[in-house]
Design brief:
heterodimer; A: alpha+beta; Arc Repressor Mutant, subunit A; 3 domains; two-stranded antiparallel ribbon; elongated; B: alpha+beta; 5-stranded mixed beta sheet; 17 helices; 39% helix; 19% strand; globular
Chain lengths: 219, 438
């Protein structure tokens, strides 16, 4: 169970970073690669992490101290950690297997655990389902920001705009989609097309929603 | 007459919230067409009558059910829109979802009304019941851009009085110690569940206001009224009797499908086709909830809003139109009058039973029933994949050929005409579309 939880956490940027960092480290060290694969194979076969003496057997090392040193190294890379009794807990072991698998042993069969940390396009594009609306773009004022007439824009009404967001707003009675810029205390709505001028609200600015994503379907 | 004593309860043994969306259909329209805000908007164009009117339109004297010709006289600048039930349903689902963020105990009372039991949530949100209610109201307004009126009190009946007290966008809290102040002004027939007949009866005993009713002793209520009124009496006294029912509705007592068409018609084939489609639709819904009906009611509505109908009892419950067509035709012939002009047809399925414990009789052709079962499970699967009525009965065909509504009224909602690439007339993305030109 714990393993599954860790996998889902691994979606956050922080963990992803650790994972990439580790890849650089490990990829250059063939010896460690082989050893990690031995451990993860053990893990896959038995469903648990090996003990220190079992690691000794796997690595053909007689000295527990050298096992200890290797485990320390792996712990630093964020691959695994130890609980209070010193037993091993896998962290990004599973992803690691997958990466090594593509290089060395062919692609492993898609086990159920592998598919847990995937998200659907819906989840990727929609943060707050209840507050999300669609909008068809008609103008070209955000052409250079990559939003073209006919595009489908996903608008989130629950978000408060921050500097640089693309917003749908009502300015002095007129509706527009522009880039929200804060300059000190004033707000400017910037186009992304030299044909249009920036808008500075005179009386009223009402932000109806923040653009979360843009979809363009070709076929 | 002596003024009745106050009614006070110091605590919140139960905190029930009632949420009632303000002019729901037209509010949804104003949310997706923001340029219509502050204008008199009317939904129901395709039916020729007012299905819903915005507050701006209500102020001009427009009421539900009014004919559009009257509307044009009263309020020539009214904006008439075809009803877009798809969008309204999405808003409704979202409104309930937002409420569930605050309490899991939400009762979806109707498309635009809900009860929420927020008892015990004060500590969790570090706020009073009134503040929690205010937050729910504000979240709905921010995320959906519609306003709701909210009432909080000790029971469902009282919370409903509270939400009605101030509309639109009202927030009324009737605490236990001020129940009497709200009830003393309220005519007894305005209480949820007390109708015109009961209130006329109560007036014989000098009961005119809700407070006078509430102050009667239990013996009086038990002697002269039935159990539902005893329950209302308890609820008015701040003792919650009606629970907030969380389960979505899945045990229907009856299923009805009605459809209006314009202009009115006297064409026998067309009217029967309408009825046949009503039957198919009702059966689809029954099958979705795994139900079978043993009674079918057919009715036809004339131009003058006169209904004629007939009830058909079945010897075995079913949800397969194929088994019902002969009966439908017989029944139709009995009620149809070739000289009348009809504007609507309807089907009611009642006497519903779960599909899995039907007792077949010795004379039933079970082989045929099993076959029917297979045919309809395939039809339902096809409908799931390709949209409703992918396969339908030939008798419903005239409905498809002849438009439901003709002329100016025959508008379809904007959403069905402005499709994104990949959408089609039957299936669209499950999300409301903002109609803003940017």
């Amino acid at each position: 169970m714990q393993f599954l939880i860790i996998l889902t956490i691994s979606l956050t940027g922080e963990r992803l970073f650790a994972y990439n960092h580790f890849m650089v480290n490990i990829a250059n060290n063939k010896k460690i690669q082989v050893r990690v694969k031995l451990i993860s194979d053990f893990y896959r076969k038995s469903g648990r992490m090996p003990s220190f003496s079992e690691i000794g057997q796997l690595f053909r090392l007689k000295s527990k101290n050298s096992v200890f040193k290797i485990v320390n190294k792996l712990e630093k890379t964020g691959l695994l950690k130890r609980d209070h009794k010193g037993r091993l807990i896998p962290l990004s072991m599973k992803q690691h297997t997958k990466v090594l698998g593509t290089i060395e042993a062919g692609f492993p069969s898609p086990a159920e655990e592998e598919l847990i940390d995937t998200i659907s396009l819906d989840d990727l594009l929609i943060q707050n389902k209840d507050a999300t609306f669609l909008l068809k773009v008609t103008g070209d004022s955000l052409k250079d920001a990559g939003i073209l007439p006919g595009d489908m824009v996903i608008v989130d009404k629950s978000l408060n705009p921050v500097n640089g967001d693309i917003v749908i707003a009502q300015v002095d009675g007129e509706w527009t989609m522009k880039i929200f810029k804060k300059r000190g205390n004033s707000i400017i709505l910037m186009p992304a097309n030299p044909k249009y001028k920036p808008i500075q609200p005179k009386n009223e600015l009402k932000v109806a929603g923040v653009v979360a994503s843009v979809i363009r379907k070709y076929k | 007459m002596p003024y009745p004593p106050p009614l006070t309860i110091d605590q919140w043994p139960r905190a029930i919230m009632h949420v009632d969306a303000d002019a729901f259909f037209t509010s949804c329209e104003q949310a997706i067409h923001p340029e219509l805000k502050g204008k008199p908007v009317i939904a129901g164009k395709e039916r020729g009558i007012v299905a819903a009117a915005s507050y701006e339109a209500k102020k001009r004297g427009i009421e539900r059910g009014m004919r559009l010709s009257e509307v044009k006289k009263l309020c020539p600048d009214a904006i008439l829109l075809p009803s877009d039930y798809e969008t309204y349903s999405i808003f409704s689902v979202r409104m309930f979802d937002i409420m569930r963020r605050f309490s899991p105990q939400v009762e979806e009372y109707s498309i635009d009304e809900a009860f929420i039991d927020i008892t015990g949530m004060r500590r969790y949100f570090h706020s009073s019941y009134g503040e929690i209610a205010g937050r729910i109201q504000k979240t709905i307004e921010k995320e959906l851009d519609i306003t709701v009126s909210v009432g909080v009190s000790l029971s469902k009946v009282l919370s409903k009085i509270a939400s009605k007290y101030k509309k639109p966008n009202g927030l009324t809290i009737i605490a236990g110690r001020e129940i009497h102040t709200y009830l003393s002004e309220l005519p007894v027939e305005k209480v949820w569940g007390i109708g015109a007949n009961t209130s006329a009866f109560l007036k014989k005993f000098g009961i005119h206001t809700a407070l006078e009713f509430t102050h009667k002793d239990e013996g009086f209520i038990k002697r002269y009224l039935s159990k539902p009124y005893l329950e209302i009496w308890h609820e008015l006294n701040g003792r919650s009797v009606y629970p907030v029912i969380t389960e979505p509705k899945d045990d229907y007592k009856s299923i009805s499908k009605t459809k209006t068409f314009t202009p009115p018609s006297s064409d026998e084939g067309f009217i029967f086709a309408q009825l046949s489609k009503n039957l198919e639709n009702a059966c689809i819904k029954a099958r979705r909830y795994n139900l079978c009906a043993n009674k079918v009611i057919i009715f036809l509505r004339t131009q003058e809003y006169k209904d004629t109908g007939i009830e058909i009892r079945l010897n075995r419950p079913t949800a397969y139109p194929l088994e019902l067509f002969d009966l439908l035709r017989d029944g139709f012939k009995k009620v149809y009058n070739s000289r009348a002009l009809y504007r609507a047809t309807g089907i009611v399925l009642s006497g519903l039973k779960p599909n899995d414990n039907i007792q077949y009789s010795l004379f039933d052709d079970t082989v045929k029933i099993v076959k029917m079962n297979r045919i309809y499970s395939v039809i339902d699967e096809l409908s799931d994949r390709f949209g409703k009525h992918t396969i339908h009965h030939a008798s419903s065909l005239p409905v498809k050929i002849q438009a439901q509504h003709e002329g100016e009224r025959g508008d379809t909602p904007y959403r069905k005409n402005s499709l994104f690439k990949g959408e089609n007339k039957r299936q669209r993305i499950h999300m409301p579309v903002l109609n803003i030109k940017v």
